[in-house]
Amino acid sequence: MKETILLTKHMRENPEDSHLIESYEKSNGYTTAKKTLLGSSPEKVLEEIKASNIRGRGGAGFPTGVKWGFLAENEERYLVINADESEPGTFKDRILLERDPHQLIEGIIITCFAANIKNAFIYIRGEYAKPARRVQSAVEQAYQNGYLGKNIFGSEMDLDLVVHLGAGAYICGEETALLNSLEGRRGEPRLKPPYFPAVKGLYMKPTLVNNVETISSVPWIIENTGEEYNKLGVEGSTGTRIFSLSGHVNVPGNYEIEMGSTFGDFVETLGGGIRNNKKVKAYIPGGASAPWFRGDQLNIKMTIDDVANNNSMLGSGAVVMMDQDTNLVNAAKSIVSFFAHESCGQCTPCREGTTWLEMILDRVASGRGRTSDLELLLDICDNISPGLSWPPKMTTICPLGPSAVSPITSLMKDFREEVESMIPTKVLL
Amino acid sequence: MSWDDKLIKQAKKIVKIYPQKRSALGPLLHLAQSKDGYISDDSVSVISELVGITEVQVKSVSTFYSMYKQEPTGKYLLSVCKSISCEINNSNSIIDVVKDFTGLSNNETDEEGLFTFEAVECIGACGGAPAIQVNYETVEGLSTENTLNLCEWLKNETPDLVVADELQNKFGGTKSFDWAISDNSGTTGSVPGFQTLNTTKDKK
To answer: Chain B contacts of A288, Cβ < 8 Å?
Structure first.
């Protein structure tokens, strides 16, 4: 398999200075936005996005064209770019922010043109100090060149773009929590309804919330048409996607590929295989929230639907490989600790449940487990996500709680013996 | 110590950027940290007036987010990642080195005010695991040996400006992706500080 280079083209061809506006313009940057603003219509842009069949790259995989179509009429409407990338295993938005911020800004301009939006925000996680600096200087350059502000490219369109720094809360990746955070509140997800920020979002006004990668794809789609984009990948998972590969692989990194090949092929050809020729024991197909696959399931195809049909999710496109020597109880504990730390605390099952799961896994991992712990873990999981089915049922406002259940159900389903072997058979007094 | 005129001016400029005042709360808390290294009671009261909410509301927000520090942080905030990709690449051994060197437990600051240590959740450096952030400047592909060298270097050199590229070149290894663009910018102080972002355009 080979990479298909659309989003990462400019940064690859101009490795030294791809973040600068001069360099981006040399690669014909901003010409698509200019053509669009001066010669196209919002309806035409929306048509192209719909024709591309692109689905959101943040994790939920919602069709972008449909989301844009939902946006309610109002004088005030907003665009918020979700750059709160914090799903363990994911570092794809980081490369887009650091090395090609102008592509994102051009995508924002076109999106705001299509949706008649005058105020846009980029919400970047606070820990991304360097990417935030790069985006901020890119925004300033765009203002200086008249690509942001009043009468962009001499058109009627005005657009203000603000770079907003988060402060270390994974939960702000959930779109309604992100909006609360941007409003200067605690980053707690909002109770639904209202279901869609596109109807009631920032300041309860219609708001588009889109991922960095999604909006970075917009210039290519508009330049080359939605039909061309739709030809890439497979039905239901069109276009290219940047996968973040990490764990026990020889060549970790971000790879832009068309969806549709298998995880095994991906790891062998692009990832250089598993280190020291070891075997895969288990792997995570789509970030820490996703249920794991076993090492003998590497023939599953990397599409949103194929992964979903196998009871997991492609999520944020973060693939984490764990080799045969991995202590999976420790791995699960790491993921559960993550969710326990990041729980916003609103819903009892998540706030209490994740903490209890962490404590019990900790005692199992350190050899102090009890035989009753396995059932206890599953019982707590069942209280967070009744039935332990996939997609998960929820007793909580947002999916964070059920996400903490994923590694435990994976462990109990496929690696129960390994967990049992860690429980001491004799009680030491 | 209260906020001086210059800082108040800068804060008012930030408030104006947003359609509603309260949205400036986050950036103002970052600004407060760039001044003191933590959110002081005084900052809470200044900010509450600037955005027009009560002090308790400011406090409730500032305590929600892990990057807003409620106590003074050291000159260098050492944040070692412990999430999944780092965990399976021995981040525990990196944490041990930092703990041993600094003599600190999680979220503690030494008496000299030089180091604060914290074990943190995913910092988006999974391809370069295990990784650390020094004042939010990322260093990837650590070994235990280089982690020790990094700590010693910080203690001996005590640079005011921490630059990711410099640290990565000296102490890092495998990166999540090719950084390519050479970069001398970095952070001053143990918070990313809105000082790097204070040139945001005024809302017209």
So the answer is: 83-84, 122
Whether B200 sits inside 8 A of A128 (CB atoms) is no
Q: Which fold has domain A328-421?
A: de novo design (two linked rop proteins) (1.20.1440)
Averaged pLDDT score across all residues of chain A? 96
Per residue in A322-355, pLDDT (tens digit) is 999 999 999 999 999 999 999 999 999 999 999 9
Please indicate whether, in this complex, the C-beta atoms of B122 and A87 are within 8 angstroms of each other: yes
B122 chain-A contacts, CB cut-off 8 A: 86-90, 170, 288, 338
Task: Select from 1.10.20, 3.40.50, 1.10.1660, 1.10.10 the CATH code of B5-65.
Answer: 1.10.10
Domain B76-186 = CATH 3.30.559.10: no
Rounded Cα distance, A378 and A405, in Å: 9
Q: What is the DSSP letter of A301?
A: B
State the complex-level ipTM.
0.95
A337/B82 Cβ within 8 A: yes
Inter-chain contact A252–B176, Cβ cutoff 8 Å?
yes
- pLDDT tens-digit map of A123-153: 999 999 999 999 999 999 999 999 999 999 9
This prediction's pTM: 0.96
The three-state secondary structure class of A28 is coil
Residue showing tokens 């606070």:
A126
Structure tokens at A109: 């301009």
Q: Rounded distance, CA A314 to CA A318, Å?
A: 8
**Close Cβ partners of A137 (under 8 Å, ≥ 6 residues apart):** A19
pLDDT-based confidence at residue A425 (cuts at 50, 70, 90): confident
